């Protein structure tokens, strides 16, 4: 009977070991619309009219997005103000399933593509350069203006690099997902009183390209694997005392190992006569 008990104990060890190593490190790892170390790029999608803009982390998930690869607003009135204010948020139903942790020494890199037609500002008109604000949930964590973008009918690339600060290292699930606000306001073209808008360009337009265009349109987050904050025992240099690059489930694996050792010991104990 003793060899049989040893065989049963070894079988239990094998089952426990396989179950622990096969467990995924994160519930997000197998969902292409969720962020992970291997899937750090947030993609932008929206409608043709630019009245809706949404994001997720699946580069092939363009369902419902504009078939032209961009959204555009056009103004045709004489001297119309080119006025835009919209926010791209995580797609409904795709809030984070786990917290997202960023490398405190890394940078968030946002690549966008625009085509903005407008005329010069003057003292009598409101003006706001292209302005981007990155939100963490409802909290703005970075903001910058880009006066070099706009003023022609050419496509223009914008790259915004945001060093990760202390308030950007942890993005809590279901409440602190990233969103990007886009603002712009400058005057459109004005035609003379004789020929009017029939012969000259009046107004202007604002075009925002999406991730399925021919351009690079995405936000790249420096995601790292982390244990839950406060469970690392401190001193590891990670967020909230967590150890950098620690794999979730390591504690579970240690517990499984202890159970396995106990099983082997029980299986090898000599039988009393």
Outline the structure in words.
By secondary structure, the chain is of the alpha+beta class. It folds into 2 domains: 2-23 and 234-268, no CATH class; 41-220, Jelly Rolls (Sandwich). It has helices at 2-22, 250-268; strands at 41-46, 53-56, 70-75, 81-90, 100-101, 107-117, 128-136, 139-146, 156-163, 170-171, 178-187, 204-209, 218-220. The strands form 2 sheets. Strands 1, 2, 3, 4, 6, 7, 8, 9, 11, 12 and 13 form an 11-stranded mixed beta sheet that branches. It has a two-stranded antiparallel sheet with strand order 5-10. It is elongated and about 65 Å long. It starts with a helix and ends in a 5-residue tail after the last helix. Mean pLDDT is 80; it is low at 12-26 and 228-257.
Properties at a glance:
273 residues, alpha+beta, Jelly Rolls, 13 strands, 31% strand
Which helices and strands appear, and what pairs or packs with what?
Layout: H1 2-22, E1 41-46, E2 53-56, E3 70-75, E4 81-90, E5 100-101, E6 107-117, E7 128-136, E8 139-146, E9 156-163, E10 170-171, E11 178-187, E12 204-209, E13 218-220, H2 250-268
Parallel strand pairs: 2-4
Antiparallel strand pairs: 1-2, 1-13, 3-12, 4-11, 5-10, 6-9, 6-12, 6-13, 7-8, 7-11
